[in-house]
Amino acid sequence: MSVDQLIAVCGATGRQGGAVARSLLEEGWKVRALTRRPDRPEATALAALGSEVVEADMEDVESLRRAFEGAYGVFSVQNGLLSGFDREVVQGRNVADVANHVGVAHLVYASAGTGQRGTGIASWEAKVDIEHHMRELGLPHTSLRPEAFMELMTDKSYYPAVGTWRIWPRISGEDKGIAWMAVRDVGVVAASVFGRPESYIGRSLTLVADVKSLSECRDIYHDVMGKPPVTFPLPVWLFDRFTRGDVTAIWRWVKTGEFELDTAATRAIHPGALTVKEWMVLQRESANQQEV
User: Fold this and answer.
1) What helix, strand, coil percent values describe the chain, rounded to 5?
2) How far are the Cα atoms of 44, 61, 143, 227 from residue 85, in angstroms, in the given order?
3) Residue 286 — very low, low, confident or very high, per pLDDT cuts 50/70/90?
4) What CATH superfamily is the domain 6-213+244-291?
5) Where are the domains of the chain?
6) Mind listing the pLDDT tens digit for each residue in 194-215?
């Protein structure tokens, strides 16, 4: 597969979209970065790397048509925590409809969860609806399903101090094995999937780079950072107000649900996917550089 073709990346100034755009650029693809705010620093950074940045809104079909014109592939990602899960479905369906209309050859979709209905988790159910719509269209696509991002342990916008280190253990327990994946490695996997459509179109890929319990992650954090993660008290009901109750619903499911914990399939695609410890070391090094 020639990598000099154009991929339109939705949500390019977000975590997953940004990681995918950067990985595609590194592999030699042409990237059209879609964002509602082309003036954001993240968009400017992508432009400096060689991406074409265009203004588009996943609720504006005409803007998507312009953005997808001439694209070989599309990376589709929505954030229901920001927009609401009903709007997430609308956005995901719009992306699929327009990609199908303009003849996109391969759509890679940022999914999550089990891919099955009935979990009671709003974000997962929304993604099932979107994937069902893509199948009905006959749209050639691949779904990527990471379970837990390593960024949940340090990224302030994920409320890690109170969420990951205090509320999650209370709900799921300290010793349950969690399937972890760094966002940057999702980008690498997506680029690999675009490069081998014959191997991945029609498939759903559960992404697991490392399996560690929250207790093990806390120990790794302490060993690498030289201190335990700092937390503070917060009632679950208040945390739910920030996260639409969806995050704690996932953690309740994790307590008893079964998820893929085998790293082999992910490492077959991306052998260098970071372990929790490797990722944590990079966070320490990044923090040290910022202090200099």
Assistant:
1) 55, 15, 35
2) 29, 18, 18, 37
3) confident
4) NAD(P)-binding Rossmann-like Domain (3.40.50.720)
5) 6-213+244-291
6) 999 999 999 999 999 999 999 9
